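TODO from last week: model Membrane bound hydrogenase, MbhI subunit.
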Amino acid sequence: MIPRLVTGAGYWSPLLWLAFLIPFALIGYLIYSRGNPGYKKDTEQVKPYLSGNIEPSKEKIQVKASDIYWGFIEALKGYYNILQTIHTGDLRDYILWYLGVGTIILFLLVGGA
């Protein structure tokens, strides 16, 4: 005899679950058996249909991050041009900008009080 696991929320019976799954397996097999017998794997049939057009390469259809933000960057083009001119790539310049802007903010906050 197969024991049943009884919990406070219900019970587990493997035979009951097997009886529950067999009809679903039969339905799945019936659907699978009704499939197109003319289907051949690794042929032209597996290619996506693009209205008769040749499928472009993956590199041509790839959406880049710059494409996603194109409108945003184009709208703020003047701002980004200024940032690119002052962008040197030198860490000392960034620290100098950070200290300068921090000093201005500190004077505004302390001077206003």
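Done. The mean pLDDT is 87.
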